[in-house]
Amino acid sequence: MNMQELIKPLIQKNNTKIVLIVLDGVGGLPNASGKTELESANIPNLNALARGSACGLHVPIAYGITPGSGPGHLGVFGYDPIENQIGRGILEVLGLGLEVKRTDVAVRCNYATIKGGIIIDRRAGRIPTEQNKILTDRLQKEMRRIDEAELIFAPGMEHRFAVLMKFPKPLEPDTAMITDTDLQKEGVTPIYPAPLSKNAEKVSKIVEKVINKSQELLKNEEKANYILMRGFSIMPHLTPFQEAFGLNALAIAAYPMYRGFARLVEMDTPSLKKDVKEKIEFLKQKYNDYDFFFLHVKKIDSYGEDGNFEGKVARIEEFDKLLPEILKLKPDVLIITGDHSTPSLMRSHSWHPVPVLLKSPYVLGGLCNGFSERECIKGELGIFPTINLIPLALANAGRLKKFGA
Amino acid sequence: MNMQELIKPLIQKNNTKIVLIVLDGVGGLPNASGKTELESANIPNLNALARGSACGLHVPIAYGITPGSGPGHLGVFGYDPIENQIGRGILEVLGLGLEVKRTDVAVRCNYATIKGGIIIDRRAGRIPTEQNKILTDRLQKEMRRIDEAELIFAPGMEHRFAVLMKFPKPLEPDTAMITDTDLQKEGVTPIYPAPLSKNAEKVSKIVEKVINKSQELLKNEEKANYILMRGFSIMPHLTPFQEAFGLNALAIAAYPMYRGFARLVEMDTPSLKKDVKEKIEFLKQKYNDYDFFFLHVKKIDSYGEDGNFEGKVARIEEFDKLLPEILKLKPDVLIITGDHSTPSLMRSHSWHPVPVLLKSPYVLGGLCNGFSERECIKGELGIFPTINLIPLALANAGRLKKFGA
User: Fold this and answer.
1) Alpha carbon distance A169, B60 (integer Å)
2) Distance in Å, alpha carbon of A59 to nearest chain B alpha carbon
3) Cβ–Cβ of B66/A400 closer than 8 Å?
4) Contact assignment for B81 to A403 by CB distance below 8 Å
5) Chain B residue at shortest CA distance from A360
6) Hey, which residues 237-256 in chain A have their CB within 8 Å of chain B?
7) Chain B residue nearest residue A5, CA to CA
8) Is B376 on the interface with A (CB under 8 A)?
9) pLDDT tens-digit map of B256-285
10) Domains A15-85+238-396 and A90-233 share a fold
11) Cα–Cα distance measured from residue A263 to residue A269, given in angstroms and rounded to the nearest whole number
12) Nearest-CA neighbor of B153 among B167, B168, B165, B171?
């Protein structure tokens, strides 16, 4: 029995508030000083909070497995990231800020260079983003609709773009089972899409037409004279957050992709161009309207990905200064954690368990002397799968009945 | 593969003794002093024992899930409490001290008040227990047998009672799949039982006759003039403890429900009206006759449920004073733990992991400075699912062979 099935009959509602702060990529590793980013940061508020909280480390997927942002967020939202995989096409369009429906097929695309029938550059020499916009606009104007699908072309960075095919009717789960046209190799002839299921045939035909029409429209381009398409996918069917956990949820996130993850589980996801301070202001404004708040802090991860240890430390310190504003709200349950670790040393996401603190009236506390990887290990939550975080939040909020009598 | 399947081929017998002490609800949370019940208690014997034992915390069901007494005990007995759920009717009759067989269907019942065909009080004004006894006796006398079933009516407290239907032949697993006649709402017409399977039809017919006959027998009662029936259930089919683990087991418990749990797995369960000291005396008397002893200490939980922090502390201290008597027996493996936590602060069972110590010659020890939630976290067993406790006991008793070569 999976976790959501186990807890569904136990859920009870009340007036408690749960606040989940995701400090994206917060976990780290020591630099030459021997200290991690969290250990190097001057974070008196987080440290004091950790001393009175239940602390631990959560494992997003499994020991040794580095999560992408999608699986990382699904886990902290209480969804099994292995059972609920998000297709590459869907991730791409969410990242570009497009709204995706259950009747859409999403595709990740590259401009490429073809010569004599052979792909000689899969990235079309990384054409400038500005040129990408012009070309993608040209494709859009000439292909607003093919067969029964409305098409949306969305430019990305350099050679990347995405296509969304909007169908009029609900789609079968195997509708997007189509082979990639990109072999991820150069010096080969491009391949045509092949449907892997009966239901995928209509989509495959549209894809074929898009490729042919694009080739015609791009034939005079020096570099971007062909398109490669892959990661055909539809929205994963996730039980809405409200239905799974009985919580009316608001996502406070500035980046489209993170709002997209929250939208996958039907949280409210207003479009916000806000910094952390403004996000906390927004949390205060909306505090009476929801049960659950997901507040996303992106920049900590970005500096980690850049290998900028000091920059990551500074963004953690910036959050620490703002933390008292959140504490003033006195949420019944406050969780501060990350969706994964991003050690500056590695310049990438990593598999390392993620520090977490949970503050509520029903914790032991007193086991950790601060908020860091090495202190959280001493905490009462131990090292545990991320999927347990939401049940713990619900329990601490008095929102779960007893199992059995 | 589940745990029992994994260990079954590894089990070997020897002359070791395993003693499992369940201090019901022993885990707690800090009060205003910052200390938990275990931390507040003067327990020199438990603390000394913990220093030389393998300690940890066990999770009865899952993070955030609060176990009832049934699932809590199944876990410490080595049975998966999610796979083996105990029906409400069975729990009720076990609590009332009735002996249940695999050929029985158990039902939880309420006296209720009906007026003009509408349930106006689901609890019949909580009639006195004495009156309940008189009424239940009347029902028993007039309904000793219906169709092929012998009926046993057992009064409980106030408006509660139970019915056991004893059939002459083994029952199919879906025999008790019958809808509750109690909608758990007032101001509604009562509903008739509906069988949800072919095998449930014969039971459903008996239930209908019981309801009709009761209405006739109770028609002149002012309050208790109707009965509501729910939680129709048969005994879960659990592999007997002896068969699963190769242990000849004795349960030493005073409360009927806990003996009932032990009887579910076919431990010997003599009826005992004994306090803790007398239970330990009984353990000594029977020490040569069994391999495994489950000794249940109820009152610690009761004070926790009452929110009586000092009372819970006192009962823990009382056990501590008696502990040397158990140690004198020098059991090969001694486990002291609870079936769940019951923090006085919460006045209820809770989801918090339960402190456990395991004493044997094959432990590291030296990691914890006493027996408490915060000390056990430092121990060599970590935070682990309760289901692992019995395999650990068997291993420490030399009763498990190597897996593979």
Assistant:
1) 46
2) 14
3) yes
4) yes
5) B29
6) none
7) B82
8) no
9) 899 999 999 999 999 888 899 999 999 999
10) no
11) 6
12) B165
Interchain contact, B383 vs A382, CB within 8 Å: yes
**Minimum distance, in Å, between the CA of residue A392 and any CA atom of chain B:** 4
Q: Tell me whether B29 touches chain A (CB under 8 Å).
A: yes
Question: Which B positions 76-105 lie with beta carbon below 8 A of chain A?
Answer: 81-82, 85-86, 88, 91
Question: Residue B144, Cα to own-chain centre: how many angstroms?
Answer: 29
Residue ranges covered by each domain of chain B: 13-86+238-396, 90-233
Of A361, A382, A388, the CB nearest to B64: A388
Encode pLDDT of A174-220 as tens digits. 999 999 998 888 999 988 899 999 999 999 999 999 999 999 999 99
Q: Which of B29, B93, B351 to mutate to test the interface with A (most CBs of A within 10 A)?
A: B351
CB contact residues (below 8 A), chain A span 381-400, against chain B: 381-382, 384, 388, 390-396, 400
Spatial distance between the Cα atoms of B354 and B335, rounded to a whole number of angstroms: 12
Q: Which residue has the tokens 């709200």?
A: A329
How far apart, in whole angstroms, are the C-alpha atoms of residue B240 and residue A304? 55
Q: Is B27 on the interface with A (CB under 8 A)?
A: no
CATH topology of domain B13-86+238-396: Alkaline Phosphatase, subunit A (3.40.720)
Residues of A in contact with B87 (CB under 8 A): none
For residue range B378-388, list pLDDT tens digits in order. 999 999 999 99
Q: What is the 3-state secondary structure (H, E, C) of chain A?
A: CCHHHHHHHHECCCCCCEEEEEECCEECCCCCCCCCHHHHCCCHHHHHHHHCCEEEEEECCCCCCCCCHHHHHHHHCCCCCCCCCCCHHHHHHHHCCCCCCCCEEEEEEEEEEEECCEEEECCHHHCCHHHHHHHHHHHHHHCCEECCEEEEEEECCCCEEEEEEECCCCCCCCCCCECCCCCCCCCECCCCCCECCHHHHHHHHHHHHHHHHHHHHCCCCCCCCEEEEEEEECCCCCCCHHHHHCCCEEEECCCHHHHHHHHHCCCECCCCCCCHHHHHHHHHHHCCCCCEEEEEECHHHHHHHCCCHHHHHHHHHHHHHHHHHHHCCCCCEEEEECCCECCCCCCCCECCCEEEEEECCCCCCCCCCCCCHHHHCCCCCEEEEHHHHHHHHHHHCCCECCECC
Instruction: State the Cα–Cα distance between residues B336 and A173, nearest whole angstrom.
Output: 51
Q: pTM of this prediction?
A: 0.92
Place of tokens 């079309």: A124
Give domain A15-85+238-396's CATH architecture: 3-Layer(aba) Sandwich (3.40)
A18: phi then psi, degrees, rounded to nearest 5:
-120, 125
Query: Which residues on chain A are in Cβ contact (under 8 Å) with B343?
Result: 362
Pairing of strands B149-155, B145-146: antiparallel
For residue A366, give the nearest of B34, B349, B352 by CB distance. Answer: B34
ipTM of the assembly? 0.90
Hey, which CATH number is domain B90-233, 3.40.50.970, 3.30.70.1430, 3.30.1330.40, 3.40.50.720? 3.30.70.1430
In this complex, which of B62, B70, B91 lies closest to A391 when CB atoms are compared? B62
pLDDT at B185: 86
Q: Is B70 on the interface with A (CB under 8 A)?
A: yes
pLDDT at B340: 98
> Which two structure tokens, joined as six digits, stand for A321?
């200064």
Tokens of A107: 């595709």
* Cβ under 8 Å to A: B residues 304-363: 343, 345-346, 348-353
Please judge whether B374 and A394 are an interchain contact, meaning their C-beta atoms are less than 8 angstroms apart.
no
Q: Does B31 touch chain A (CB under 8 A)?
A: no
Q: Is A213 exposed, middle or buried (0-12, 13-18, 19+ CB in 10 A)?
A: middle
